[in-house]
Design brief:
By secondary structure, the protein is mainly beta. The protein has one helix at residues 2-19, and strands spanning 28-29, 34-38, 41-49, 56-68, 80-90, 96-103, 115-125, 130-133.
Protein backbone atom coordinates (compact mmCIF):
# COMPACT_ATOMS: atom_id res chain seq x y z
CA UNK A 1 0.00 0.00 0.00
CA UNK A 2 2.82 2.40 0.85
CA UNK A 3 4.59 1.66 -2.46
CA UNK A 4 1.38 2.32 -4.36
CA UNK A 5 0.88 5.66 -2.55
CA UNK A 6 4.51 6.69 -3.26
CA UNK A 7 4.12 5.82 -6.96
CA UNK A 8 0.89 7.85 -7.25
CA UNK A 9 2.47 10.80 -5.43
CA UNK A 10 5.52 10.70 -7.73
CA UNK A 11 3.29 10.56 -10.80
CA UNK A 12 1.23 13.52 -9.55
CA UNK A 13 4.40 15.58 -8.99
CA UNK A 14 5.66 14.77 -12.49
CA UNK A 15 2.36 15.78 -14.07
CA UNK A 16 2.29 19.01 -12.06
CA UNK A 17 5.80 19.84 -13.29
CA UNK A 18 4.77 19.29 -16.91
CA UNK A 19 1.78 21.57 -16.72
CA UNK A 20 3.49 24.53 -15.02
CA UNK A 21 4.09 27.62 -17.17
CA UNK A 22 7.53 28.25 -18.58
CA UNK A 23 9.54 30.64 -16.45
CA UNK A 24 12.30 31.30 -18.96
CA UNK A 25 11.89 32.18 -22.59
CA UNK A 26 13.96 32.39 -25.70
CA UNK A 27 13.47 36.02 -26.84
CA UNK A 28 13.63 36.71 -30.56
CA UNK A 29 12.19 39.06 -33.15
CA UNK A 30 9.36 37.57 -35.21
CA UNK A 31 10.63 38.31 -38.70
CA UNK A 32 12.53 41.55 -39.20
CA UNK A 33 11.15 44.79 -37.77
CA UNK A 34 10.00 47.21 -40.47
CA UNK A 35 10.98 50.84 -40.94
CA UNK A 36 8.61 53.25 -42.66
CA UNK A 37 10.12 56.58 -43.68
CA UNK A 38 8.05 59.70 -44.22
CA UNK A 39 10.05 62.89 -44.58
CA UNK A 40 11.71 63.75 -41.30
CA UNK A 41 10.28 60.74 -39.42
CA UNK A 42 10.97 57.02 -39.42
CA UNK A 43 8.57 54.60 -37.70
CA UNK A 44 9.87 51.19 -36.68
CA UNK A 45 7.39 48.40 -35.88
CA UNK A 46 7.93 44.80 -34.93
CA UNK A 47 7.14 41.86 -32.71
CA UNK A 48 9.11 39.93 -30.11
CA UNK A 49 8.24 36.44 -28.98
CA UNK A 50 9.66 33.81 -26.65
CA UNK A 51 9.46 36.23 -23.73
CA UNK A 52 8.41 33.67 -21.12
CA UNK A 53 7.03 35.30 -17.98
CA UNK A 54 8.35 38.82 -18.66
CA UNK A 55 5.82 41.57 -17.96
CA UNK A 56 7.20 44.09 -20.45
CA UNK A 57 10.03 44.88 -22.85
CA UNK A 58 11.96 48.11 -23.37
CA UNK A 59 12.82 48.87 -26.99
CA UNK A 60 15.20 51.58 -28.23
CA UNK A 61 15.46 52.76 -31.84
CA UNK A 62 18.43 54.87 -32.94
CA UNK A 63 18.93 56.28 -36.42
CA UNK A 64 21.22 58.66 -38.25
CA UNK A 65 19.67 61.46 -40.28
CA UNK A 66 21.37 63.66 -42.85
CA UNK A 67 20.07 66.78 -44.54
CA UNK A 68 20.74 66.37 -48.29
CA UNK A 69 20.75 69.27 -50.73
CA UNK A 70 19.02 69.11 -54.15
CA UNK A 71 22.29 68.25 -55.94
CA UNK A 72 22.54 65.00 -53.89
CA UNK A 73 25.62 66.32 -52.11
CA UNK A 74 26.20 64.62 -48.80
CA UNK A 75 26.27 67.01 -45.86
CA UNK A 76 29.13 68.16 -43.73
CA UNK A 77 29.28 66.90 -40.15
CA UNK A 78 27.04 69.73 -38.91
CA UNK A 79 24.15 68.45 -41.04
CA UNK A 80 24.26 64.85 -39.74
CA UNK A 81 22.85 63.83 -36.39
CA UNK A 82 21.81 60.72 -34.49
CA UNK A 83 18.24 60.61 -33.14
CA UNK A 84 16.42 58.04 -31.00
CA UNK A 85 13.14 56.99 -29.45
CA UNK A 86 12.39 54.42 -26.76
CA UNK A 87 9.40 52.83 -25.16
CA UNK A 88 8.15 50.12 -22.82
CA UNK A 89 5.62 47.65 -24.22
CA UNK A 90 3.50 45.02 -22.42
CA UNK A 91 4.03 41.30 -22.93
CA UNK A 92 0.97 39.10 -23.45
CA UNK A 93 1.26 35.33 -23.77
CA UNK A 94 5.04 35.61 -24.20
CA UNK A 95 4.75 38.10 -27.11
CA UNK A 96 4.97 41.87 -27.47
CA UNK A 97 4.26 44.25 -30.36
CA UNK A 98 6.11 47.55 -30.55
CA UNK A 99 6.10 50.70 -32.66
CA UNK A 100 8.34 53.73 -32.20
CA UNK A 101 8.70 56.93 -34.22
CA UNK A 102 11.97 58.83 -34.48
CA UNK A 103 11.86 62.43 -35.69
CA UNK A 104 14.83 64.37 -37.05
CA UNK A 105 14.80 67.74 -35.30
CA UNK A 106 17.57 69.63 -37.06
CA UNK A 107 18.51 73.11 -35.87
CA UNK A 108 18.35 74.93 -38.21
CA UNK A 109 15.58 72.92 -39.82
CA UNK A 110 16.11 70.79 -42.90
CA UNK A 111 13.70 72.75 -45.09
CA UNK A 112 12.89 72.22 -48.78
CA UNK A 113 14.55 71.93 -51.17
CA UNK A 114 16.72 69.97 -48.67
CA UNK A 115 15.51 66.47 -47.72
CA UNK A 116 16.21 64.11 -44.83
CA UNK A 117 18.03 60.84 -45.61
CA UNK A 118 17.91 58.11 -42.94
CA UNK A 119 20.61 55.48 -42.34
CA UNK A 120 21.95 53.12 -39.67
CA UNK A 121 18.50 52.40 -38.15
CA UNK A 122 19.08 50.12 -35.15
CA UNK A 123 16.42 48.39 -33.00
CA UNK A 124 17.51 47.00 -29.62
CA UNK A 125 16.07 45.27 -26.60
CA UNK A 126 19.20 45.24 -24.46
CA UNK A 127 17.51 43.45 -21.55
CA UNK A 128 17.02 40.39 -23.79
CA UNK A 129 20.21 40.79 -25.82
CA UNK A 130 18.39 41.51 -29.09
CA UNK A 131 19.43 43.95 -31.76
CA UNK A 132 19.07 44.39 -35.48
CA UNK A 133 20.21 47.02 -37.99
CA UNK A 134 17.67 47.84 -40.69
Amino acid sequence: MLKRFAAIAALALCLAGLSSPALAGSPHFVGIPTATISGDTVTVSGKEAGLGDEAQIHVVVTADAACINPGDQHPEAANKESFNAEGTFPVQNGKANFSLTVTANFQPTCAPPMTVAWSNIVVTDAANGLGVTL
